[in-house]
Amino acid sequence: MTQPLIAERLHDFAGPTIFSEMTALAQQAGAANLGQGFPDSDGPPELLAAAADAIGRGLNQYPPATGLPELREAIAARRTADQRLTYDPRTEVVVTAGATEAIAAALIGLCDPGDEVIVFDPLYDSYSACLAMAQVRRVPVLLEFDGTRFTFDPEAFRRAVTPRTRLVLLNTPHNPTGKVFDESELALIAEVCMAHDLVAVTDEVYEHLVYDGLRHRSLATLPGMRERTLTISSAGKTFSCTGWKVGWACGPARLVTTVRTVKQYLTFGTGTPFQAAVAHGLTRCMPWVDELRAELARRRDLLVAELRAVGITTYPCDATYFVQMDARSFGHDDGETLCRALIRDAGVAAIPSVALYDDKAAGRHLVRLAFCKEPGLLTTAARRLAAYASDASAAPREGQERTSND
Ligand code: PMP
Ligand code: GLN
């Protein structure tokens, strides 16, 4: 690949993301793509019709930089219905180009070079890149599997705070672990934020994709947190329209104004007709989202049952599109080598979770599978994985020999 002329602070980010890379490899190999997290079916027909209608009605010019007023009102109404939080749609809600832009604008706008941000490891890939763009140091707190669930050491979290800490960046429900941060974890994060006067930025793009009767709770609902929390979400996952890139941030005006200030120079505004459609979706299509949630839980169960039946270890998943499996079930201790072998030899694309880990040793054996795919594709992929695992247990693979010399 051509070496780009790129600033030193971005050297680690040159080249396509792991998601683009795996999707391209899957397309070349004709593999079942359980890599990049996008659904392979469309959102509610009524939502799609609302977008077409908005284009037909001439909503094709710039939106206001803060987003269409009807969308900001619909977002505020949802926050009240879902989390009993009240936001003023004029000053406390801003629409962005996906959650990705809201995250970028928050980090760039709230931090100075040399500041520190506490993140939970593994972390979504855009966090590290945005922190590098803003010349901010990321301070990871590891989520470790304790035999039951992924969780963190409270003392490690407390120790992560220094005089340079500007904010805590929290993703719940969490990609790639499928974890929903529980009451006691949220309470600890809130306590530390308040004790050190820290801002919290929460990425809640999977807020509606939580299974088994569990509930997602926004950090902003904890006592004292609304005034210091910027809550970020997106229509992409909620309505299966990841290509529309309509996201938003809600919070006190002092934080929302920061996001607005930066985003007006990043994109200014995007996707006017899609914004109109998402306003419709948030008001009218939530029953469809309830069905999506139930369907995704069934797909998770289908995939996990097929894998477990042949002895492939999977980790618990309470939410999101993703379940992780253990590369060691295939005789590999390195998920990255396994993912490359799976595309080539098994016809399945997955994401090596290590790509999202700061602590590479901790994530080395984990592989992320996206189950937001048609059941037929999930079954095909699971059977291919099962066949590959049984071959692997019959004979040691080349990849295994290589990794044992690392
Ligand atoms: N945060 C997380 C945790 C994600 O998994 C994703 C991918 N949807 C995003 C942010 C980006 O969201 P969007 O596509 O709305 O920019
Ligand atoms: N959020 C998607 C995932 O985790 C990827 C989105 C992207 O490709 N940037 O798979």
From TrEMBL:
Pfam families assigned to the protein according to its UniProt record, in alphabetical order: Aminotran_1_2
Enzyme Commission number, as recorded: 2.6.1.-
Keywords per UniProt: Aminotransferase, Pyridoxal phosphate, Transferase
CDD domains, per database record: AAT_like
Boundaries of every Aminotransferase class I/classII large domain copy: 33-371
Gene3D superfamilies named in the record: Aspartate Aminotransferase, domain 1, Type I PLP-dependent aspartate aminotransferase-like (Major domain)
Keyword Transferase appears in the UniProt entry: yes
Protein name: Pyridoxal phosphate-dependent aminotransferase
Coiled-coil residue spans: none
